[in-house]
TrEMBL record:
Compartments where located: Nucleus
Stored SUPFAM superfamilies: Cyclin-like, Zinc beta-ribbon
UniProt xrefs under CDD domains: CYCLIN_TFIIIB90_rpt1
Swiss-Prot/TrEMBL keywords: Metal-binding, Nucleus, Repeat, Transcription, Transcription regulation, Zinc, Zinc-finger
Protein name in UniProt: TFIIB-type domain-containing protein
CC annotations in GO: nucleus; transcription factor TFIIIB complex; transcription preinitiation complex
Coiled coil: none
Origin species: Patagioenas fasciata monilis
Family: Belongs to the TFIIB family.
Domain TFIIB-type: 3-34
Length: 191
């Protein structure tokens, strides 16, 4: 870190500042030197592509405000952490709901793979996570031939079956998954 700071615990001068978490940690001993780094004078600027980004200076406890500025790296790290958190929450919810349906581990893993594909294609944006997870589980039920109906998932989640059906059809189409339709229900949904 610029400015020549030294760790009070071990005397090491290699201090790592993590803008996303807002802390400063000594790489020598692992001591947290600051955990509430705040930003003063935040401004938003427009870049050449028409997007905007935040620009500012970190203010540390000792008042040295010449640490890294907010910019592209700050937002990129948040996106990676957010995606990892989304996948972790999705996996947990898939296992919870899948266990209620008594699906085997292969089905749960396949549903999670469908969920990862949906996240990578941005199909989760603007949709409730529970609806996407239910649709992924139902995709597995259809492709693996399990005896579950969309109504089972609807009952468990207390969600309108047509809302889940719409999400299911969207995922099947966008992920190019040939899920055999059963019953008159899908005839009603597609028209």
């Amino acid at each position: 870190m610029p400015g020549g700071r030294v760790c009070a615990a071990c005397g090491c001068s290699e201090i790592e500042v993590d803008a996303a978490r807002g802390d400063a940690v000594c790489t020598g001993c692992g001591s947290v030197l600051e955990d509430n780094i705040i930003v003063s004078e935040v401004q938003f600027v427009e870049n050449s592509g028409g997007g905007s980004s935040a620009v500012g200076q970190f203010v540390s406890l000792d008042g040295a405000g010449k640490t890294p500025t907010l910019g592209g790296g700050f937002h990129a790290n948040l996106g990676k952490e957010s995606r990892a958190q989304t996948l972790q929450n999705g996996k947990r919810q898939i296992h919870h709901l899948g266990n209620q349906l008594q699906l085997n581990q292969h089905c749960l893993d396949t549903a999670f793979n469908f969920f990862k594909m949906a996240v990578s294609k941005h199909l989760t944006r603007g949709r409730k996570m529970t609806h996407v997870i239910a649709a992924c589980l139902y995709l597995v039920c259809r492709t693996e031939g399990t005896p579950h109906m969309l109504l089972d998932l609807s009952d468990l989640l207390q969600v309108n079956v047509y809302v889940l059906g719409k999400t299911f059809l969207l995922l099947a189409r966008e992920l190019c998954i040939n899920a055999p339709a059963i019953g008159i229900f899908f005839y009603e949904l597609t028209f």
